[in-house]
TrEMBL record:
Protein name per its UniProtKB record: ABC transporter permease
InterPro entries referenced in this protein's UniProt entry, alphabetically: ABC_transp_permease
Superkingdom of origin organism: Bacteria
Protein's cellular compartments: Cell membrane
Predominant place of localization: membrane
Transmembrane segments: 6-29, 36-57, 63-83, 95-114, 153-172, 198-221, 253-273, 285-307
Organism: Paenibacillus antri
An example molecular function term from Gene Ontology annotations: transmembrane transporter activity
Cellular-component GO terms for this entry: plasma membrane
Record flagged with keyword Transmembrane: yes
Keywords recorded for this protein, A-Z: Cell membrane, Membrane, Transmembrane, Transmembrane helix
């Protein structure tokens, strides 16, 4: 395999494995831009993976499963919104609790639905695959190097890139986006100007849950082909690191998620770049090690929204 082909494959595989992280990072962005810290991205992705796999299995359509996952993610985010916004609980503790709940609930329901089995049936087995298939964009996919790299991908990759642009436009070009950013920076000033701080934060957290759940569904419907307790495997936390690395900006967060995806892509190309002797266990732990490095290196340089993590009490000074 030539260096040209390796480079094309690297970009292609990076997009495959970074897509779920992009969804998770965008999900975290919506919540934290409104001032609500969302540590529960991991749990929301888990619920999305569970719902996507189970609904797809019974409905016979991965797109019905994908949409159902988004709805389930928004519903699962509701307790976090209630605890954080209405009852002003510690947002980090609420998020961590939801992460544990998601894994336990997903595993329990999986065993309940599938006669004690620890994972859902394989969606790629049998006569008809229920997986989301890759698409080739006519003409563009035939372009040397760039065709395979960018224009032969899962539809979810194009969806998340479109949502990135929509998120950017809403946050920075619309009155609704201005309200979200104002609530995340100066909720008292926003309240004085007539903005319903509670409503904005509720909507942002529910949107966060829907986006993150789509990331989990992407994992189940494109790469793992099923749901188990290890389907998400910490990728929600990596998505949060990408959000910080991207400085709470839609384009930056997606680019950072792609950066993390490169590490996963590399392990598939080791034999072709002369590093086939490197143990896969070492490569598999690199995304998590890289997460720690990014957090240590950038947490002090990236400035979160000023009111992030601070409950708002109407009428307070």
């Amino acid at each position: 395999m030539s260096g040209w082909d390796i480079g094309s494959d690297l970009i292609h595989i990076t997009l495959v494995y970074a897509t779920a992280l992009m969804f998770g990072a965008l999900g975290g962005l919506w919540s934290e831009r409104s001032g609500v810290v969302n540590i529960a991205i991991e749990g929301m992705m888990t619920i999305g993976a569970f719902t996507g796999a189970v609904v797809t299995y019974f409905a016979g359509s991965p797109w019905i499963g994908f949409i159902a996952a988004a709805v389930a993610g928004a519903i699962f985010a509701l307790p976090h919104a209630v605890a954080s916004v209405t009852y002003k609980a510690d947002q980090t503790i609420s998020g961590v609790a939801l992460n544990f709940l998601a894994v336990g609930l997903g595993l329990y329901l999986t065993k309940l639905i599938f006669d004690g089995q620890g994972q859902s049936p394989n969606l790629a087995s049998g006569g008809t695959s229920l997986m989301i298939a890759k698409v080739q964009i006519p003409f563009l996919s035939d372009i040397p190097f760039f065709g395979h790299a960018f224009f032969e991908a899962y539809p979810t990759t194009y969806i998340v890139l479109a949502l990135m642009l929509v998120t950017w436009y809403i946050l920075f070009k619309t009155p609704w986006g201005l309200r979200i950013r104002a609530v995340g920076e100066h909720p008292k000033a926003a309240d004085t100007a007539g903005v319903n701080v509670y409503l904005v934060r509720y909507m942002a957290v529910l949107t966060s849950g829907a986006f993150a759940a789509m990331g989990g569904a992407t994992l189940a419907l494109t790469t793992t082909a099923s749901f188990s307790h290890s389907t998400v495997a910490g990728q929600g936390y990596i998505a949060l690191a990408a959000l910080i690395f991207g400085k709470w900006h839609p384009i930056g967060a997606v680019a950072a998620a792609a950066f993390f995806g490169v590490v996963t892509a590399v392990k598939f190309l080791l034999p072709y770049i002369g590093l086939g002797h490197v143990p896969l266990d070492i490569i598999s732990m690199l995304p998590y090690a890289l997460t720690l490095i990014v957090l240590v290196s950038f947490i002090g340089r990236a400035t979160a929204p000023l009111a992030s993590g601070v409950p708002y009490e109407k009428g307070s000074r």
